[in-house]
Amino acid sequence: MTSSALTRAAIRRRRDMGLVYGSSVFGYDIKNGKLVDNPAELEAVNNVFKLRRRGFSLHQIAKKFNAIGVAGKRGGKFYASTIKAICDNDLHKRRFNVGEQLNFLYDLGDL
After folding, report:
1. Residue 87 CB coordination number (10 Å)
2. What domains can be seen in the chain, in order of their start residue?
3. pLDDT in tens, 23-57
4. What's the rounded Cα separation, in Å, for the pair 53 and 73?
C-alpha cells in the first residue's frame, strides 16, 4: 500500500470513530478530541439539503443564508463553494440521507 493510501485509510478510520482528523467540520465542534454535534450548524446543514432537494442552486442557498444571518464556521459569509463543501461532506451525506431531520430555527421565507 502506498503512503497516500495508508494516510487516506487512517483518516477514514479516525472519521468513522468520530475522532478529529483535521479542522472541525461545519455542523460539529471538537470536544476532547472528538467531533460533537453543533445543533445550530447541523440545522443549517439540514436546510442546505432540504433546499437542494427543492432545486435551489448553491449560490441561491448561500445568498439566502447570508440574508438571514446564518454565520459560517468562523463567523464569516457563505459562498456557493461553502455550500458545495457541505453537500459533498461524507459525514453530512450519511447523517442526512438516512432521513434524520432537525427542527428549523431559521425562517427560510418563501424560498
Report:
1. 16
2. 3-96 (3.90.1750.20)
3. 778 999 988 878 889 999 999 999 999 999 899 99
4. 23
Report the C-alpha gap between 60 and 15 in whole angstroms.
30
Higher per-residue pLDDT: 108 or 82: 82
pLDDT at position 25 is 86
Cell of 41: 450548524
- Sequence-separated (6 or more) residues with CB below 8 Å from residue 68: 106, 107, 108, 109
pLDDT at 90 (0 to 100): 81
Helix count (H) and strand count (E) of the chain? 5, 2
Could you tell me how far CA 72 lies from the centroid of its own chain? 10
Residues in Cβ contact with 104 at an 8 Å cutoff, skipping those fewer than 6 apart: 43, 46, 47
Q: Which residue has the cell 440574508?
A: 67
**Rounded to the nearest 10 degrees, what angle do helices 80-88 and 39-53 cross at?**
100
